[in-house]
Amino acid sequence: MEKAILIMYAETNIHAGAGSSISHIDLPIQRERATNLPIIQASSIKGVIRTFSKGKLDDKYIACLFGPGDDLNSNDNELKEKLRNPSFGGGCISFTDANVLLFPVRSFKGVVAWITCPLVLKRLRKYCEMAGIEGVVDVNLDDEEEVLVPENSGVKWDGRVLLEEYFFKVGNGDVSELANWLHGILSNQGCEMAEYIKRNLVVVSDDWFKYFCENCTEVITRIRINPDTGTVYPGALWNEESLPSETVLWSFILADKPKLNICELNTTQAMDKLVELVDKKVIQIGGDSTIGKGLVRLGILR
Questions:
Q1: For position 22, what pLDDT does the model report?
Q2: Which one of 121, 132, 199, 280 has the lowest number of neighbouring Cβ atoms within 10 Å?
Q3: Which residues are CB-neighbours of 34 under 8 A, at least 6 positions away?
Q4: CA nearest 116: which of 175, 165, 171, 157?
Q5: 206 vs 202, 212, 246, 278, CA distance in Å?
């Protein structure tokens, strides 16, 4: 079985919706039940990558990687049946939910800081070890009101960091190694903000990370206007939540031997096909694609 990490960099806001809500946000984003941290569900990731593969891969490879579907065709009736009938087996590529790795927040100095926390890094390190990937370092904070920044930080000001309206004292630890690792990954996939992220990285406590991810997402009010009256249509006024642009997420990928006997791919070749398809590519994920939301730059670590 082949394993890899999918890195997702949000070029624009992402609205991966969780449906309606009874809170002040009518259309919230998807969140993990235990931590309440934002996620993008695996089915959304697999679905948009499958759609992205149309016209780029032969239908038999799409069926092998992502599973059969009514949208796949062949001139061979027997093959066509296999391409369209899910009873012949599912796809050989599996994804986990995408978790937030770096979350952008306002900073007094440096304009914006990208925050992460020990819990998030430990989770990522666990999955990187499964995939044989090195570079994620353990980070520990002795004081919840302290933060850690890399050497020559772009957000450090007089020994402190101001995120949103909150002051934090900079601790003695150094996260330059982590910042360099993230810079290498993001610059490799063509992210032009990699240098800013390297300089403006901030490690906060788990509780503060949760607070910022709950209270510093993008929330906008949307309306639909009646062109005849110039007023809002009845019921067409709502609040919508999105992950902010510049957010970085990750997902774990597994490649198994294809279940369909219609293409000669082993597990390594199946992962190679996926890497060739999506590495350094920009796709759209989530809702509101017609107003520019959900543009995501992808990269794969192996």
A1: 56
A2: 132
A3: none
A4: 175
A5: 12, 10, 20, 31
pTM of this structure: 0.91
d(Cα 51, Cα 72) in Å, to the nearest integer? 11
Calpha distance 84→87 (Å, rounded): 9
Sign of the four-CA dihedral 235, 239, 242, 244? positive
Q: What are phi and psi of 75, to 5 degrees?
A: -75, -20
Bridge-based pairing of strands 232-242 and 112-116 is unpaired
Among residues 46, 32, 17, the alpha carbon closest in space to that of 120 is found at 32
Contacts of 168 (CB under 8 A, 6+ apart): 145, 146, 147, 160, 161, 162, 202, 204, 208
So what's the pLDDT on residue 212?
A: 97
pLDDT at 176: 94
Q: What is the DSSP letter of 108?
A: S
Burial class (CB in 10 A: 0-12, 13-18, 19+), 128: buried
Could you tell me the two tokens for 97? Answer: 């939910």
Q: Which amino acid is at 86?
A: P
Q: 10-residue block means of pLDDT along the chain (302 residues)?
A: 96 88 78 95 95 92 89 82 80 96 97 97 95 87 92 93 96 92 94 95 97 94 79 77 96 90 87 96 91 93 92
Note the pLDDT of residue 21.
64
What is the C-alpha to C-alpha distance for residues 3 and 182, in angstroms, rounded to an integer? 19
Residue 208, pLDDT score? 97
120-129 contact pairs (CB < 8 A, 24+) = 120/37, 120/209, 121/178, 121/203, 123/99, 124/5, 124/99, 124/250, 127/5, 127/96, 127/250, 127/252, 128/5, 128/301
Residue whose structure tokens are 């304009």: 111
Query: Are residues 98 and 247 in contact, defined by beta-carbon separation less than 8 angstroms?
Result: no
Query: In this structure, what token pair is assigned to residue 44?
Result: 């959304």
